Amino acid sequence: MRKIDLTNFKVATSETARQINRRITLNFLRHHQPMSRADLSRRSGLQRSTVSAIVDQLIDEGWVTEGAIGRLPRGRRPRFLHLNVERTGIVGVNLRPETTTVGLANVDARFEEQRSFPTPDDPAVFVRTVARTIASLRTAHPRMVCEGVGVSLPGRVDESGRLVFAPNLGWRDVDLRRMLESATGLPVNVENAANACALGEVWFGRHDEHVRHLVAVTVSEGIGVGVLLNGQLVRGANAMAGEFGHMTLDEAGPPCCCGKRGCWERYASNSAAVDYYTSGSPVKRGSSEPGLRFEDVMRLADTGDLRAIETLERMAQFLGVGLATIVTGLAPQVIVVIGEVTSAWNRVGPIVAEVLERRALRETPTRIIPTDHATQPRLRGAVTLVVQQHFGVPNVA
Question: Count of domains in the chain?
Answer without folding.
Answer: 3
